[in-house]
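Ticket #4471: structure export looks truncated?
Reporter: QA, pipeline team
Priority: medium

Steps to reproduce: submit the single chain below to the structure queue and open the exported record.
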Amino acid sequence: MTEKNTTNTAELALSPKMDARYDSDVSAEPDREEISEKRILRKIDFRLLPLVVALHAVSLVDRTNISVARISGMDDDLDLDIGSRVSIVTSTFFIGYILFNIPSNILIRAGGVGAARFLGTITVAWGIVTIGIGVVNSWVATAVLRSLLGVFEAGNTPGSIFLVSAWYRKYEVQKRLAVYFLGSLFIQGFSNIFAYGLVQIGNHTTYKGWRWIYIIEGAITAVLGVIAYVYLVDFPDSPKTKFLSEKEKGFVNERLSWDRGINETHKVTWKSIREDFKDWKVFACAWIYFSATIGTYALGFFLPTILKKSLGFSLAASFVLSGVRDTFAVLVSALLSWLSDRVRMRGPFVCFQALLSIVGLTLLAYTKSPASRLVGAFLGAAGSNAIIPSALAWQANNCREGKKRAVASGMQVMAGATGGLVASYILRQQDGPAYVPGLTTIMTVQSLTVLLSIFQSLWCRRLNKFADEGKIVLEGLEGFRYTM
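Actual output as written to the record:
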C-alpha cells in the first residue's frame, strides 16, 4: 500500500461514511455476498468475548476469595489473625501482579507464543496455585503462593485488553471492554453464594470447608485455562487464527489498517518502551485507571462493613445490597460505554463518571440519612466502575501501534493494581465503620481525574487541529487523529 493510499484509508477510517466504501469499491474488497461485516463481528464477539470474560471473572474470584475463606476457618487453621499476617498475605498478591504486568504483555507477542497459548497457560498455572493454597498448613506458605498467584494473574487482564483492542476499530472497542469488565463483575457477584455452598462440603470430609473453596475454584480455573488454550482466538494477523476464512481474515485486517494504518506485529523493544514513556498521555490514562480502581477496590473491600456497622443493615441485607450495587454499576457502565462509542468521545464521559463517583462518595461519607448514604454507595460504585472501560478505550484509541498499546495497557493495569494496594490501607480500621478520611482521599484522587480528563481532551483537540492544518503528523501516520 502506498503512502498516499495509507493516508486516504486512514482518513476514511475516521469518517462516518467509511462503511460506504465497502459497497462502492468492490475492487478493494471481497464481494459483499461473501463478506458481511456484521456477521464477522458477531463471529468474533461470540468466539472472543465469552472466554476472556470468564478468564477475568475467575481471576477476580481467585484473588479475593480469601475474605470468604477467612470467616470460614482459615484464620484459625493458619493463625492468620496474629499481628500483621493478614496484611502480609493479602498484599503479597499485588507485588507480583504489579511487577509482571508489562513483561507479560511483551511476552504475549514475542516468539510466536500467541494469545491463546499464553493466556491458557497462565490460567492453568494460577489455577494450580489456587488449589495449592487449599492444602497448605502455614500462613507463610499461603503468602508465597499468593505472590505466585499475582505473578501468573498479571498477564491476564492486560493481555486480554490487548487482544480485544487488536480485533476492533477504535469506536467499536469500548462497548467490548465494558462487556469484558462488567460481565466478569456480574459473574463475581455470585461467587460468595457459590463459596458458601463449597464450605458445606467440609461437613462431610476431613478437609475444612475453606479449603474446598480453593480446591474446587482452582480446579474450575485450571479447566477453563485448558479450554482457553484450545479455543481462544489469537491476534487477527496470526496464522493460528483458524475460525475465520482467509477472505474474512483479510477483510478484518484491512478494516483495521484503515483505522490505524498499522501492522500489529511490531515488536516491543527497550527503545520503543522509552519512547512510549515520553508520551504523557500514557501516564494520564494510567492515573485515570488508578483513580477508578482505588474506588472500586475500596468499596468492594469495605462496603459490606459500612452497610452493616455504620448504616445498621443486617448481615444478609449487607451482602444482598452489595450484589445489587454491582448490578446497578453494570447497567450504568454499559449505558455510558454504548453512548461513548456512539458519539466517539472519551474525555467528557471520564469527567462525568468521576463526578458521579465523587457525588456518591460525598453522600456516603458526609450525610446522615441511611437512605442518602445508600444512594451514595450506589452512585460511587457506578461512577468508579464506569471509568474503567472508558480509560482503557481512550488509551487504546490514542495508541496507534500495537507495541505501544501493549506497554500502555500494561501500565494501566499496573496502576490499577496499585490502586487496589492503596485502597486496602487508606480505609483504616481506626476510621471505621464510616471510613470518612479514606473516602475523602478517594474523592481527592478522582477530582484530579476530572481536571486531567478535561485537559487531555482539550490537548487532543488542539493536536488534531494542527494535524488538520498540516503542521504535524500524529503517531507517525498521515490522517490519524486522537480521540477526545
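Status: closed, not a bug. The export was complete when the record was re-opened. Leaving a note from the reviewer for reference: DSSP finds 20 helices and no strands in the chain.
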